Fold this protein.
Amino acid sequence: MKTALIAFSISAILGGSVTAQQMAQGAPAQAARSITTGSKLYYGLVKDWITKGAAQMPEANYSFQPTKDVRTFGQLIGHLADANFMFCGNAGGTKGPAQSIEKTKTTKADLEQALADSFASCDKAWAAMNDKTAMTPAGAWPPGIPLPAMDYFSVLQFNTSHEAEHYGNIVTYFRLKGMVPPSSQGAGGA
């Protein structure tokens, strides 16, 4: 895991990209230089961890709330789905559905489906972006969202950062329940 993140970081700094196989092997990147290719790889990695985390958490733990001041695990998954629809819709110039998934969905099945649908929206936005279209102005933010106007690439990067931030919460929920989070499962289970 650490080797893969180091390889990705070096690649991002140098403006190159790394394939998943190269990351797994810890090999230096020799791929074509593309900021969007490297960013798409990172998005896919975070998406995979979140999706696996949602699938692996038992349904009984979807109502787990470590303290009264934080979201339940299920609300966290709903929040990610809501944010994916908003950010990826904005990047693509379309408005994502404002479903308030975090507040309306409670079952594991419903939340996993909403998460999958939201990632499908993001997959579409990422697939349509390349180095030539990355700086295209994104759509307008919904009323009440205090973010400046951004380009397509920045919106998707912002969303991936948001996803990674909340994946950190998922890791904590897993650890509190005595479970190994997805990102550590291939690293000896620590």
